[in-house]
Amino acid sequence: ESCNKSLVNASFNVTDESYCHLFCACPETNFNNVTFNYLEIDKWFLMNANITDSVLEGGEYEEVWHEGVTWNNITVDGVEFKDATFLNCSFNSVIFDDVVFEN
């Protein structure tokens, strides 16, 4: 199955198994102006990608592996990350509010 390399102006709401393809199997997807609302994601692999002008609001993200990812102008509010690794990532203008990291 092919992957989109870019996702622009999108919104994801609550838990939906159909998102697994995007979050589990498309590690080079760039996200621009994307809102993640109260998601429960079991795996989110991202490599050499960008997340720009986006919001992560509420939810739980397990087994997060971001390598070489640039976060630009992001708000992260009320999110719980479990077993998360951010390797060689850069965070520019990122606001973390009520965020829990549990490894």
Task: Describe the overall structure.
The protein is mainly beta and 103 residues long. It is 6% helix and 69% strand. It has 1 helix and 7 strands; from the N terminus they run E-H-E-E-E-E-E-E. Strands 1, 2, 3, 4, 5, 6 and 7 form a 7-stranded parallel beta sheet that branches. The longest helix is centred in the N-terminal third of the chain and has 6 residues, at 20-25. The model has no long low-confidence stretch (mean pLDDT 86).
Set out the fold topology.
Elements: E1 6-13, H1 20-25, E2 30-41, E3 44-47, E4 50-67, E5 70-87, E6 90-97, E7 100-102
Parallel strand pairs: 1-2, 2-4, 3-4, 4-5, 5-6, 5-7
Keywords:
103 residues; mainly beta; seven-stranded parallel sheet; 1 helix; 7 strands
Q: Approximately what portion of the residues adopt beta-strand conformation?
A: over 45%
Which series of helices and strands comes N to C? EHEEEEEE
Number of strands: 7
Helix share of residues?
under 10%
Radius of gyration: 12 Å
What does the average pLDDT come to?
Answer: 86
Work out the helix count. Answer: 1
Overall, the morphology is globular
Low-confidence stretches: none
Distance between the termini: 31 Å
The structure class reads mainly beta
Report the biggest beta sheet as strand number plus sense, adding barrel if it closes: 7 strands, parallel
